Amino acid sequence: MTQPVAPLTVFVEGVGLLGPGFSSWAQGRQCLAGSAPYEAARSVLPLPMALPSAERRRAGAVVKVSLAVGQEAVEASGRQASKLPSVFSSSSGDAVNCHEICTALASNDRLISPTRFHNSVHNASSGYWSICSGAMATSSVLCARDGSFAAGLLEALTQCVVDDSPVLLVAYDTEYPEPLYSKRQISDTMGVALVFTPRHSERSVARLSLDRASFLTMRAADTMDDAALEALRLAIPAARALPLLYAIAKRQARPIALSYLDPMQLAVDVAPC
Q: What pLDDT, in 10s, does the model give residues 188-221?
């Protein structure tokens, strides 16, 4: 007789959030929980002060948003950033930098600055994170277009359980300038970070579980009741995390379907701690 397989279960110890209308998880949690109104506004990206001055000058929007949310989540967890394995997930990396490189290649000069070049790689944020945090633990970097948040979540949860170790997930996307915008319509920057642990602690705020036999579902992805938040969820791939963040903020216990690879969604059970 086949024995049932235990689900992948992890606990959320810290959350980071930055994006249109969200300055932090502390502020965003109030909006998502309904205790404060959500007001759409352009993202304001802080300077990455944890970086040395030379690297800080080279940092673009991708680095600024990923470091900001990663640091917020780690600080909330009370853990040492230098010891945390990490997963970085983005649908496209630094779109502005890509635009500048394409512009240079289309010019008569065609010379690309070293700064532009080293910021063009998809793992740039992971590299800058290791510089500012001193992290020497493993770091995975992945992309799954509009399903990148769910892909990163699946990878982070799996690592957390299999390696029996806390893991940091950072998901982020930046705006596309024209003419790239006409082909990839992402109009602003957003980042989400979560610290997962394999066991409950006094800092745990939520429990997430994936059924190993049915973590993919064909049912429609969960949406946001608020029209402005739903517009944001659809506008930026990293914002596909909003239904999960909403459940955490509201302290709800329920199943959630997160946008993944059409027509499949990622099925996650969330419960408060």
A: 999 999 999 999 999 999 999 999 878 999 999 9
Burial 161-194 (b: 16+ CB within 10 A, else e): beeebbbbbbbbbbbbeeebeeeeebebbbbbbb
Peptide bond into 46 cis (omega under 30): no
What was the pLDDT predicted at 109? 80
20 prior amide bond cis, ω within 30: no
Closest CA to 208 of 172, 161, 163, 165: 161
Question: Does the global pTM surpass 0.90?
Answer: yes
For residue range 121-149, list pLDDT tens digits in order.
767 777 788 887 888 888 999 999 999 99
pLDDT at res. 2: 56
User: Which among 170, 160, 166, 169 is positioned nearest to 203, based on CA atoms?
Assistant: 166
The domain ranges of the chain are: 8-206
DSSP 3-state of 263:
coil
The mean pLDDT of 116-124, rounded to a whole number, is 69
CB hemisphere CA count around 241 (13 angstroms): 30
Cα separation, 248 vs 200, whole angstroms: 15
Tokens of 135: 């992290």
CATH C-level class of 8-206? alpha beta
Q: Which residue has the higher pLDDT, 92 or 229?
A: 229
DSSP 182-194: GTS---S-EEEEE
